[in-house]
Design goal:
The protein is α/β, with parallel strands linked by helices. It has six domains: 8-109, Trna Endonuclease, Chain: A, domain 1; 116-305, Rossmann fold; 312-407, no CATH class; 434-590, no CATH class; 614-764, E3 ubiquitin-protein ligase SopA (Pectate Lyase C-like, 3 Solenoid), CATH 2.160.20; 767-878, no CATH class. It is built from 32 helices and 31 strands. The strands form five sheets. Strands 15, 16, 18, 20, 22, 24, 25, 27, 28 and 29 form a ten-stranded parallel β-sheet that branches. A seven-stranded mixed β-sheet has the order 8-7-13-9-12-11-10, with helices on both faces. The longest helix is centred in the last third of the chain and has 19 residues, at 580-598. Residues 81-86 and 783-788 have low confidence and may be disordered.
C-alpha cells in the first residue's frame, strides 16, 4: 500500500503549536512571527512564474503581516537538490512577497543555523570515509527483523520505514550490529540519500561518539552537536515527533568510550520519552549489548547482515578492492621487515593480474571463515595477502587438495592497517617525509589504540608523547618535522579526523583494526611514551571495547601455545586495580583458549565487568565464578561443570546452559531470561529471578537430582504490576518433591505443573549417545526461544573437543577428532581448529550439508538417527575406556 504524501504544512504547524487554515479551497496557511506562510501543493504550480498566475492564492491575506512566504511544494530549483540550501531557494515576487522551497521553509521556521548544511556534510563524509579508504562504493546490506524476516536491500527497507509511519507501528527503529558490519555507513548513506533527493523531510545525522558527557545526558547535549541550542532544541524535538525531521543517531555504544549500562538506559529513556510518536522517524544504531535494553513495544529492531557473498554486487566490490591493491603494489613500497612474510616484497606482476578472478573467489570463500562477524576491512587485508602470495608464484592460496589456506585473522587486520599507512606516506609534508615511515606509523598506531581503548586518560601518555620514539624525532630541535607528523596523525586514514587539541582520545574507524593493534602490542613491544613494558601491557590489558582482541586476535597469536607469562601478569595487575574491562578481557581470553593454555586461575569477575556473548565449552567452574553485579548477557555454556559458586545481582539475559552439570550453585536476584538445556542439577538455588521476558527460566530435558534444588520467587519477576509463569519445563525430571523444588507466591505456576515429572531415577541415554550429543553441542549450541532452532557453527577450536562434562571413560580430544574426520570433518584452514563438512574450508559439499541436517535432527530428537549418526555412536562407544 502506497504511503500517504507527507503533509509538511500540518507538520510545521504542529511543531510550532499552530492551527493552519485553508485558503483558495486547497491551500494551507498560517501566520508565525508576523509572517504569513502559504503552502502551495498544486501540480500546476511548479515555479515562481506559475505562482504569479494564481491570483486566488496570491491575493489572500489572513491578517496584517510583515511578509508573505509562499512555499511551493512542487518546486525544485534547476540543478539544485531539494534538501540543499542555495541562493535560488527563494525568489522575490513583489515587495514583501517571496516564493520559497519547502527546504527553505523548514530551515527558516525551525531556526536551523547557517552552518548546519556544511556541518552535516562534514559529519556524513567522515562517517563514509572507510569507503574512501577502501576505494569502494557501498554494497547492499541486508536487514533482518526480530521475526527473522530478511530484507535484501537495507537501504530500501530503511527508506520504507522512514517514509511510511504505518510500517513502524509507532515504534522507533534500532539498527543492531557488531563493529565493522556497516551500520554507520548504512545510516550515513541513508541521510546522504535523503539530502540529495526531493524530500520535504529534513534528515539529520548525529554521531553519538561526539556527545559531550561532562554535563550529563540531555536532549540539549545532542542538539548542541549540530549547533541548535535553547528554544531551538525544544522546537527540534517537536519537529521530530511531527515527522518533519528524520533523525539518524549513530553509535549509542560509542557514547562514553566504554559500556555504561546506566548511561545507555538514560539515553534510551530520553529518546522514547522525548522523540517517540506515531509520526516520528528516529533511527538509532548500536550493538547487541544495547539492543537488550530495548522494549519491544517501543522499538523495531533490525540486524545488519552482509549480502550473500556470491551476489554480483559483492563480487564487483571485491574485484574493485583487488584492482586497487594491485595498482598500489605495481610500484616499489616500503614494507617493514616484520610484515614482509605476510605480503612479500615482490611487485604485483602479470600472474597476479591473470589470476584476478581466482583471487576474488578465494576472498569470497575465506571471508566467512576468518571470523563469526566479518568486517569489510577484511576484504582489503585479504586482497593484499593474496596479491603478495601470488606475485612471482611465491605461495599458494589453496592447499594441494583444493581446500582453503586461511590466513590468521590478526594478519588480515594488520595488513589492512599497513596498506593505509603506505598511502599516508604519500600525504605527509615534504619536510617530514623521510621520518614518516610505515614502521613508525604502525608503532604509533599501537599506542593510539591503547589510548583510544583506555578506561581513563589519567596517567597515560598523550598522542603527542608517542611521536619522538616512534619516529625518532626531536620535537625541540626539529619542531617543523614534529608538527607535520602531529597533524598527519590527527587525520590518519585509520582514524576519525580530529583537531588533536590537548590530551585528546583518538577514535578508530574500525574496531577490528584497533583491536588488532592492541593484540600486536603483546608481541611487538612498541614504545608508548615513557611507560615501562609492564605498564604498557597493563594499559593494553585494561582496554575497553576489546572483545575482538581477547576472543579472536590474541588467540590467533598464541595458536596452540600457552599464554605469555607477562600477559597473565598484566591482566592480574589490572584486575587487582579494580579495572572491570580487564576482568572482562581475562574471562574472554579464558573462553577462547581454555584453562590448560591459560595456565593460571582467573580472578573473580569484578562488579560491572561485561563478560557478554562468550562461549565457554568444556570448562570446570568453581568459586572463581562467584561475584555480584557483573554481566553474562548472551553467553553460552556448553559441556561444563559449575560448582560451589554464588552469583548475586548478575545480569544473565539470554544466557544458555547446554549439557552442563550444576553442584551447589546459588543465583540470587539475577536477571534473565536463562535457558537450561539437557542439564543436571544437584543443590542449585535460584531465588527471585528478574526478567523482561516470559518465562524467566526455561528448563528443557533437565534432571534435578536429590532434594536440595530450589526455585523460589518471593516477588514479581516481571515488574510490580505484572504476574506470570516464572518457570517453564519441557521433558524434565526431579527426584525431589515438586512442592520443594518450586517455592514462593510469585512463581506463577499452575498445578499440575506441566513439563516435569517426579521419578526416582531420570532416564539416561547410552554412554556413546551422551558423548556424541555433548561433543556436537560445541558445533550446535541451542538458541534461546522455543528451543527447536539450532545454530550450526562452521568450526570449533580443537581444544573444545573432548573437554568438559562428558560421560566417564569418554574418548579424548585426539580420538574424537579422528572419529569426526572419518565422516568428513577437517582440520584444514586455521591451525588448531576442526571444521564441519558444511564449511567452505572442508568443501561445503552437498553430502556435508546433508550431514549437518542429520546431526541437527539427532540433537532435536535422539531417536532420529541416520546411518552416519549411528556409525558415530558405534565408533565412540568402541573407544570408551
Amino acid at each position: 500500500m502506497k504511503p500517504e504524501p507527507f503533509d509538511i504544512a500540518n507538520a510545521l504547524a504542529s511543531t510550532l503549536d499552530l492551527l493552519p487554515v485553508t485558503i483558495a479551497g486547497d491551500t494551507q496557511a498560517f501566520v508565525y512571527d508576523q509572517e504569513q506562510w502559504v503552502f502551495v501543493d498544486r501540480h500546476s504550480i511548479a515555479s515562481p512564474d506559475d505562482l504569479r498566475l494564481a491570483s486566488d492564492i496570491c491575493d489572500v491575506l489572513l491578517q496584517e503581516v510583515s511578509a508573505v512566504r509562499y512555499v511551493l511544494l512542487n518546486w525544485i530549483p534547476l540543478g539544485q537538490a531539494a534538501s540543499k540550501a542555495s541562493e535560488t531557494d527563494h525568489v522575490a515576487l513583489t515587495l514583501g512577497k517571496t516564493a520559497v522551497t519547502a527546504n527553505f521553509a523548514v530551515r527558516k521556521l525551525l531556526d536551523i543555523p547557517a552552518t548546519f548544511e556544511k556541518s552535516q556534510q562534514n559529519l556524513i563524509e567522515e562517517a563514509l570515509s572507510p569507503l574512501k579508504l577502501l576505494d569502494a562504493h557501498p554494497i547492499a546490506m541486508q536487514l533482518v527483523n526480530e521475526h527473522k524476516e530478511t530484507y535484501p536491500n537495507a537501504g530500501e527497507r530503511l527508506s520504507e520505514l522512514i517514509n511510511d509511519s504505518t510500517r513502524k507501528e509507532g515504534k522507533l527503529v534500532f539498527i543492531e550490529a557488531e563493529a565493522g558490519r556497516g551500520k554507520t555507513i548504512l545510516l550515513a548513506s541513508q541521510a546522504q540519500k535523503m539530502r540529495s533527493q526531493p524530500n520535504n523531510k529534513l534528515p539529520i545525522f548525529i554521531p553519538l561518539r561526539k556527545l559531550p558527557l561532562d554535563t550529563g545526558v540531555a536532549w540539549e547535549s545532542i542538539t548542541q552537536l549540530i549547533g541548535i541550542v535553547g528554544e531551538g532544541a525544544e522546537r527540534l524535538s517537536r519537529a521530530v515527533k511531527s515527522g518533519l525531521v528524520t533523525l539518524f543517531l549513530d553509535g549509542i555504544d560509542e557514547v562514553s568510550g566504554r559500556y555504561d549500562k546506566s548511561l545507555i538506559v538514560s539515553l534510551l529513556a530520553l529518546m522514547t520519552g522525548r522523540l517517540r510518536s506515531d509520526q516520528s522517524a528516529v533511527v538509532l544504531s548500536g550493538r547487541r549489548t544495547e539492543a537488550r535494553h530495548l522494549s519491544p513495544d517501543e522499538w523495531s529492531v533490525f540486524s545488519v547482515e552482509l549480502p550473500s557473498l556470491e551476489t554480483d554486487d559483492f563480487r564487483v566490490y571485491v574485484g574493485a578492492v583487488v584492482d586497487g591493491i594491485v595498482k598500489q603494489r605495481a610500484s616499489s613500497v616500503d614494507i617493514p621487515e616484520e610484515y614482509v612474510g605476510l605480503v612479500g616484497e615482490r611487485l604485483a606482476d602479470d600472474q597476479v593480474k591473470r589470476e584476478r578472478d581466482d583471487i576474488v573467489q578465494w576472498i569470497i570463500d575465506v571471508l566467512p571463515e576468518i571470523a563469526q562477524e566479518p568486517s569489510l576491512f577484511f576484504v582489503q587485508g585479504l586482497a593484499a595477502i593474496a596479491a603478495g602470495r601470488r606475485a612471482g608464484n611465491r605461495a599458494a592460496l589453496r592447499l594441494p587438495d583444493g581446500r582453503l589456506d586461511v590466513p590468521p585473522i590478526l594478519d588480515v587486520c594488520l595488513i589492512a592497517a599497513l596498506y593505509a599507512c603506505l598511502r599516508e606516506c604519500t600525504k605527509i609534508d615534504a619536510v617530514a617525509k623521510p621520518k614518516y615511515t610505515v614502521l613508525g606509523q604502525m608503532t604509533v598506531l599501537q599506542g593510539l589504540a591503547a589510548i583510544a581503548s583506555a578506561p581513563t586518560l589519567a596517567n597515560i601518555p598523550t598522542p603527542y608523547e608517542l611521536i619522538p620514539r616512534a619516529f625518532d624525532v626531536d620535537p625541540v630541535n626539529s619542531p617543523e618535522i614534529n608538527v607535520a607528523i602531529v597533524r598527519q596523525n590527527a587525520k590518519h586514514a585509520l582514524l576519525y579526523a580530529t583537531e588533536a587539541a590537548g590530551a585528546y582520545r583518538p577514535q578508530f574507524l574500525s574496531d577490528w583494526i584497533r583491536c588488532s593493534l592492541l593484540a600486536q602490542m603483546f608481541k611487538s613491544k612498541p614504545p608508548v611514551g615513557q611507560l615501562s613494558r609492564a605498564d604498557v601491557l597493563k594499559l593494553a590489558a585494561s582496554a575497553t571495547r576489546a572483545k575482538y582482541t581477547f576472543e579472536l586476535l590474541l588467540p590467533s597469536i598464541l595458536e596452540d601455545m600457552q599464554m605469555y607469562d607477562e600477559l597473565g601478569e598484566a591482566l592480574n595487575a589490572a584486575v587487582n586495580d579494580n579495572i572491570e574491562a580487564a576482568s572482562a578481557n581475562q574471562w574472554a581470553l579464558r573462553a577462547a583458549i581454555g584453562d590448560e593454555r591459560l595456565g593460571a586461575r582467573v580472578l573473580n569477575p569484578l562488579p560491572l565487568a561485561e563478560i557478554t556473548d562468550q562461549e565457554f565449552v568444556g570448562f570446570e567452574f568453581a568459586d572463581e565464578l562467584s561475584g555480584s553485579d557483573f554481566m553474562l548477557d548472551g553467553s553460552v555454556f556448553v559441556n561444563s561443570t559449575l560448582s560451589n559458586a554464588q552469583l548475586n545481582g548478575v545480569s544473565m539475559r539470554g544466557v544458555i546452559f547446554t549439557s552442563c552439570e550444576f553442584f551447589n550453585i546459588s543465583l540470587v536476584d539475577c536477571e534473565g531470561p536463562i535457558t537450561f538445556d539437557n542439564c543436571l542439577f544437584r543443590d542449585i538455588s535460584i531465588r527471585d529471578i528478574r526478567s523482561k521476558f516470559k518465562p524467566a527460566l526455561m528448563f528443557r530435558n533437565c534432571s534435578f537430582l536429590a532434594a536440595g534444588n530450589v526455585v523460589q520467587q518471593t516477588k514479581s519477576a516481571f515488574g510490580d504490576a505484572d504476574y506470570g509463569a516464572v518457570v517453564a519445563f519441557d521433558n524434565c525430571f526431579t527426584e525431589g518433591e515438586l512442592g520443594t523444588l518450586l517455592q514462593g507466591d510469585w512463581t506463577g505456576i499452575e498445578k499440575p505443573v506441566a513439563g516435569i515429572v517426579q521419578k526416582k531415577e531420570a532416564p539416561s541415554p547410552s554412554p556413546g549417545e551422551a558423548c556424541l550429543r555433548r561433543a556436537l553441542r560445541a558445533f550446535f549450541p541451542s538458541h534461546i526461544g522455543d528451543g527447536r532452532s539450532v545454530q550450526a557453527r562452521k568450526y570449533i577450536r580443537l581444544s573444545a573437543l573432548g573437554r568438559g562434562s562428558l560421560p566417564p571413560g569418554s574418548p579424548g580430544e585426539e580420538e574424537l577428532q579422528q572419529i569426526f574426520e572419518s565422516v568428513g570433518f577437517s582440520t584444514g584452514g586455521r591451525s588448531d581448529h576442526l571444521y564441519g563438512p558444511w564449511s567452505q574450508v572442508a568443501g561445503a559439499s552437498a553430502s556435508g550439508i546433508a550431514l549437518r541436517n542429520e546431526l541437527v535432527d539427532f540433537l532435536l530428537d535422539g531417536n532420529n538417527r541416520s546411518e552416519t549418526v549411528q556409525l558415530l555412536i558405534q565408533k565412540i562407544e568402541a573407544q570408551f575406556s
